[in-house]
Amino acid sequence: xxxxxxxxxxxxxxxxxxxxxxxxxxxxxxxxxxxxxxxxxxxxxxxxxxxxxxxxxxxxxxxxxxxxxxxxxxxxxxxxxxxxxxxxxxxxxxxxxxxxxxxxxxxxxxxxxxxxxxxxxxxxxxxxxxxxxxxxxxxxxxxxxxxxxxxxxxxxxxxxxxxxxxxxxxxxxxxxxxxxxxxxxxxxxxxxxxxxxxxxxxxxxxxxxxxxxxxxxxxxxxxxxxxxxxxxxxxxxxxxxxxxxxxxxxxxxxxxxxxxxx
Length: 262
Ligand code: PTJ
What we know:
The chain is α/β, with parallel strands linked by helices. Helix content is 52%, strand content 10%.
């Protein structure tokens, strides 16, 4: 990241790209992960690269759900390991969740590299590596269906940043509460999840850490009550309305970059 000028207007975004490229060069970000990130960036532009109100609502509810879960698990893939490894370990500690490596493009080498990244960032236990992923998620094919028998397989609540739609649906069919973080509000994952957080994982996880620090002092009843008032369908519609309103506003304003007249 040293080559990125300090005053570059898109410095933040370039640094995030660099983190993914570094993870790719180190062998744990999937090639397809770079493409997935580009799609995410596009949706991030539409929401204005900030955590919009319905995202903050979903993040708060998600933390309450994690805090009241029996067996919460945070699923980690290549992109998440590259972008927020330390923050994932912190959040897992605060909500008492186990961490599992669960890859779409599964290879033993990437699993082990990601587990190492997580351990280097403070994780004491990382599930889902190699033979630990010996339970089978029904209705999914190939290596993608393997999950840890101590982790995702028995979890009641699973947090999946950047997940594939098929797997989200399979986890829902198993009766699990699925919390998705996905910048694309139209994706199958977003539409299939129990709680959909339309936000960049680099903002969502730190926000969730703050909410966890606040909500962990709440009673179980207070948390359960708060979750009861949440409707994911309604929240996801608010995201779409937010984008429509924002684009409408921009379409009625001057948004071109001005230059002095020659
Ligand atoms: O590491 P692996 O093998 O598990 O593979 C990970 C990827 C992401 C390649 C895999 O899960 C995949 O192909 O995912 P999809 O189907 O491309 O979906 C990724 C979704 O995440 C897309 O809808 C993107 O808009 C969204 N996304 C990308 N970057 C971010 C994001 N959402 C939140 N924060 C991001 N930084």
